[in-house]
Amino acid sequence: MRVAYGADDANETTRAVQQALADRAVEVVDVTGDQQWPDIGAAVGQAVAGGTADLGVVLCWTGTGTAIAANKVTGVRAALAWDPWIASGARKWNDANVLAMSLKRLAPDVAVEVLAAFLDTPGPDPDEAANIARLGALDD
Ligand SMILES: O=C(CO)[C@H](O)[C@H](O)COP(=O)(O)O
User: Atom 1 (ligand 1): residue with closest C-alpha?
Assistant: First the structure.
C-alpha cells in the first residue's frame, strides 16, 4: 500500500503518525514541504486521485483546512476523524480515501489509533456502493 502524507506543522502527534507509518509495510509518499495547508491538502488529494498513492493522511492544526483542500480534488473523499470508530466508519460507509486529523487536538497515541483504524479497515461496505456512486456523481 502507498500512503500520501502531508502536514503543515510538526509536533509530537505528527511525529507519532510518521513513525506509525514507517513501522508499517507501506510506502509513504511525503508531500510535506514549505507549503501552506491548502497546498498540502491538495497535494495529498492529487496523489490519491492521480494514483500515486492508495490512501492519504493529512494533518493541520484543526484538520479541517487540509480536509477541505483535499476534497477540492475530484475523486477525493477526505474525512476528518478524531477517534477510531469515526475513522473506520469513514472507510466502511463513505469509502474515504484521505484521513484528516487535528495535530493540535489529538494526542499522539490517539492519532496513531485513528490512523490504524483507517488503514486497517477495508472499504467500502458493498451495501454502500449506491451511496458511494452518488458521491461520485457530485464530482461531475
Ligand atoms: O488548521 C489549520 C487550517 O485548518 C492550520 O494548520 C492553521 O490555520 C495554521 O495555519 P497557518 O500556520 O498557515 O496560520
Answer: 61
Q: Which residues pair with 28 in a beta bridge?
A: 3
pLDDT per residue over 66-104, tens digit each?
A: 999 999 999 999 999 999 999 999 999 999 999 999 999
CATH number at residue 28: 3.40.1400.10
The answer, yes or no, to whether any atom of ligand 1 lies below 6 A from the CB of 8, is yes
Predicted TM-score (pTM) above 0.90: yes
Q: Is the ipTM of this complex over 0.95?
A: yes
Domain count, the chain: 1
3-state secondary structure (DSSP) of residue 4: strand
What is the extent of the structural domain holding 21?
A: 2-137
Residues involved in catalysis = 60
User: Does the C-beta of 118 come closer than 6 Å to ligand 1?
Assistant: no
Give 5: exposed, middle or buried? Use CB within 10 Å, 0-12, 13-18, 19+. Answer: buried
